Amino acid sequence: MNHKNQRPNLIFIMADDLGYADLGCYGGRAPVSPVLDRLAAAGIKFTQGYANSPVCSPTRFALITGRYQYRLRGAAEEPINSKSRGSSTLGLPTEHPTLPSLLKDAGYRTALIGKWHLGYPPHFGPLRSGYEEFFGPMSGGVDYFTHCASTGAHDLWLGEEEHVEPGYLTDLLSQRSVDYVDRMAKQDAPFLLSLHYTAPHWPWETRDDEALAQEVKDNLFHLHGGNIHSYRRMIEHMDEGIGQLVAALKRNGQLENTLLVFTSDNGGERFSDNWPLVGGKMDLTEGGIRVPWIAHWPARIAAGGVSEQHCMTMDWSATFLAAAGVAADPGHPLDGVSLLPVLDDAAHRFERPLYWRMNHRGQRALRRGDWKYLRVDGTDYLFNVPADERERANHAAREPQRLAQLRADWEAWNETMPAIPTDATVSLGYGAKDMPQR
């Protein structure tokens, strides 16, 4: 079949708190991801790709808008927590154009299966921001079996109605995705499927750990439990589900012209493998923001590609729109940049400066070329990332002019963004009293 003039189906798969080196294709130490490893081998993987934020909901704001999350009030929460339920300000404004709304207006079918984390009904929700279908939790974290949030409130939805369905959440999301692909194959329109797993986010429950649900119901952070073995099994369950989705695409003749992208919303958590990077979730060191990026599109992407192109989450929103031939809303120009030239040629590179800031610990960062400017707790650092991925060799004193230039670049960019609101909150699930800090 000639796909040259056909608009592709688009599937964006997001893991939750996955570490940079958890997958086999990124140097993982355990065989947890055979399906994703095969997708990477048959497509392209990015070794210098980043999340827009080191914490969940801000990255999701960037993904759905294709813009720096700092432009929206809700994204100043690090992250949105369950206490915001009922808020009319802490969420994605329904009038804001989004990746699904732009694609829907251009004739795409749209569905979100999985985590939303961009505000609660009645003021916010997936169906109010461009998705035709939604199945999953609204909050940032739920139990895999009871589907209750950290407040104890049940948090599994079908559309805008609470929905009770027994089962392990990772499997339910995978099964719904397979069903969606099967249904979409019976009609002619291309589709956007956002499959946003909660795995491998806490609580540390595998498919066989239903008994743990009662044990952790009062504190889903599961501070007394978990280990690398349970964590790896949670990744395996997700990988198996992605395999079922790929099989459904193949069975329906849809795999060839589907652009499937896989990533994580931020760097890893307690049991993640971020080697060789330092830090994790909530940190602007590499371990908190550098994440796997895998793209598979047999009709367009040559197998075996590896790219060092710098990119971040919102660039993939721009890439999806470009692949579909859909323009951004002129009133909300994208901050993301399309990566289609890189998908066409893995050796293609272009300069892509990347900016971050965090209320937590007053962090800021800029990656430009080989160099990274970083501030944490009031101290400025300068690192040559390719030479020192662990960010241990600080060049700030040796190269003060380079540091000053990158700092000035960051401050000039920051002037184009709204200030961090004084009432923005930082929610930490644990601290030094719970475990030694990294």
Can you give a write-up of this model?
The chain is of the alpha/beta class. The protein has two domains: 9-352, Alkaline Phosphatase, subunit A; 360-414, Arylsulfatase, C-terminal domain (2-Layer Sandwich). Helix content is 24%, strand content 15%. The protein is built from ten helices and 14 strands. It has helices at 34-41, 56-65, 99-105, 169-184, 212-216, 228-251, 286-289, 313-324, 340-344, 400-414; strands at 9-15, 44-46, 109-114, 133-136, 157-158, 161-162, 191-196, 258-264, 293-296, 305-307, 354-358, 363-368, 371-376, 379-384. The strands form two sheets. It has a ten-stranded mixed β-sheet, sandwiched between helices. Helix 2 (56-65) runs parallel beside helix 8 (313-324) and helix 4 (169-184) packs parallel to helix 6 (228-251). The longest helix is centred in the middle third of the chain and has 24 residues, at 228-251. The chain is globular. The model has no long low-confidence stretch (mean pLDDT 96).
Which outline best applies? globular
Helix content: 10-25%
What's the CATH topology name of the largest domain?
Alkaline Phosphatase, subunit A
Q: Which sheet architecture does the biggest sheet show? A: 10 strands, mixed
Count of individual beta strands: 14
User: Helix segment count?
Assistant: 10
